[in-house]
Amino acid sequence: MKKLICSLGITFILSAVYAQDRITGWEFATRSEVIARHGMACTSQPLATQVALDILKAGGNAIDAAIAANAVLGLVEPVSNGIGGDLFAIVWDAETKQLHGLNASGRSPKSLTLDYFREKGYDKIPAFGPLSVSVPGCVDGWFELQKRFGTMEMKDILQPAIAYAREGFPVSEIIAYYWAGNARSLSRYPNVKEVFMPGGKAPGKGEIFKNPFLANTLEMIGEGGRDAFYRGDMARIIADFMKELGGFLSYEDLASHTSEWVEPVSTNYRGYDVWELPPNGQGIAALQILNILEGYDIASMGFGSSAYIHHFVEAKKLAFEDRAKYYADPDFNKLPVEELISKEYASRRRELIRPGRASRNLDAGEMEHGNTIYMTVADSQGNMISLIQSNFRGMGSGMCPPGLGFILQDRGELFTLEEGHYNVYEPGKRPFHTIIPAFITKDGEPHMSFGVMGGSMQPQGHAQIVINMVDFGMNLQEAGDAPRIRHDGSSQPTGYRMNDGGVVNLESGFSQECIRELMKRGHHVQSSNGGFGGYQAILWDADKGVYFGASESRKDGQAAGY
To answer: Which distant-in-sequence residues (6+ apart) come within 8 Å of 174 by Cβ?
Structure first.
């Protein structure tokens, strides 16, 4: 018994320390950066990363490789993304030396009105089912990217995903974990079991999964183009299925869909230009956080200190109040984006932060949690793409059209039903969006393509990555491995209001002394299992002529180059 107690004591002590025993870098680092000359791909699943490299080696560019990898991810990671969801991207075009932004998010059904929700007694849009479905923008996004920047035919780009869908692939560990929960909760809807629960259950780690329906769908898209999805038999199947289940998404909604090329927006953080896409996404929240924190000597506070975490959380709260009020579809609103990301505005907002006390009375709410994939690819010509794609909540709405092999997203859930709000539900409107790609330039040249997937964690993650590298001197992999901060409970574009200061979630790795100090300042602190996002990044070192790659150690991802 005495020996057992001693053993348990040792186990407890060891569980609180880092185990990598690396001889270089920060103690929390899991591995080295990947370094290569000719091309780099970083995705959330190794098979997708390898497909991206195969495309590059076959003569495709970064944009071709990104589309191919995204198609594979929609198959191997259906808990996060797929052709039933939306897509956003930032592209560095090496030829013109310019950044381009793509908003490939879909709109609400034109026949569904705010009055319908009122008449049926809804106070919010349901998370699942037909009422949460908006037009899926992913496929059109692929074709917009391919048409403008790609070099390969779409049928060739999609071939690796088609092959894996027909022949099968082994399910990876983290994806298997989320797959089990998502498939079980959505199995009450038609066709979900047939596609995603072969033999009556979700596939486990290492089990081979096939999706012949999706293989057929991707083949039709490759041969027939984007119209095969939005104007052909596929669109009619989707529309008929939605009508049968009481939904409003119609053939006309799909046929009239278009993506939009937009100008990325930026702020300079200590010499680095950080780029995001404007709303209807939440990217500018990261810029607002950085602008506020630039007024403090973050480096002297030290990583993991209570002072740094306090100021970070308070800056996040301020940015998210603006996010709750102003972030919405710009086609329906005049949005004050320029002012929101200005240094002058940040200076005024910074004055509201009390160094010794957490703010509590900003109007309360809850955080939405979404599942997303982020990926980035770079090629030998210098092209780089930052791409993010998602179903939103897990596998999406649960609406699985028959014979097509994918589930439609539930982005419509993120509208509010509050009349007069910027983000109020309206027909043909894009909902507030959580998924955001990011990019950094320095002195007008490409520096870094990166993203942190995961609902409202994303702008918080973007800001932390930048701070970890710029203020704390971490390398590309260390910046992602570092323990993360996630504040929940801010006011939301869906109408929720913060009233109690929210909750600070901290990963393991922050000291008990730090936690106690935060509690003394009035923060509600708790640990959280998961929910801290998924990171991928590529950095271009012009002096050395090499790419550095990093991938998320918390997920199944891989960074690889050649």
So the answer is: 554, 555, 556
Residue 132 CB partners (closer than 8 Å, separation 6+): 125, 126, 397, 410, 411, 412, 413
Degrees, nearest 5: CA angle 231-232-234: 105
d(CA 477, CA 468): 10
372 is catalytic: yes
CA angle, 473 as apex, 469 and 478 as ends, to 5°? 65
End-to-end CA distance of the chain: 55
CA–CA separation, 506 and 520 (whole Å): 16
Name the pairing type of β-strands 34-36 and 438-442.
unpaired
> Over the stretch 155-187, which tens digit does the pLDDT of each residue have?
999 999 999 999 999 999 999 999 999 988 899
Of 49, 372, 416, 494, the active-site residue reads 372
14 Cβ contact partners less than 8 Å away, ≥ 6 residues apart = none
Per residue in 40-79, pLDDT (tens digit) is 999 999 999 999 999 999 999 999 999 999 999 999 999 9
Of 4, 387, 75, 423, the C-alpha closest to 218 is 75
- Name 389's bridge partners: 87, 373
Helical pair 512-520 and 306-326, crossing angle rounded to 10 deg: 60
Q: Is pLDDT of 11 > 70?
A: no
Q: How far is CA 157 from the centre of its chain?
A: 23
Q: What angle do CA 47, 51, 52 make, to 5 degrees?
A: 120
Residue with tokens 């004591």: 9
Measured CA to CA, the distance from residue 89 to residue 383 in angstroms comes to 13
Question: How many CB atoms sit inside 10 A of residue 72's CB?
Answer: 26
C-beta separation of 87 from 142 below 8 A = yes
Evaluate whether 387 touches 87 at the Cβ level (below 8 Å): yes
Confidence of residue 3 (pLDDT cuts 50, 70, 90): very low
3-state secondary structure 461-478: HHHHHHHHHHCCCCCHHH
> Which residues, 6 or more positions from 17, have their beta carbon under 8 angstroms from its beta carbon?
none
Location of structure tokens 């998961």: 530
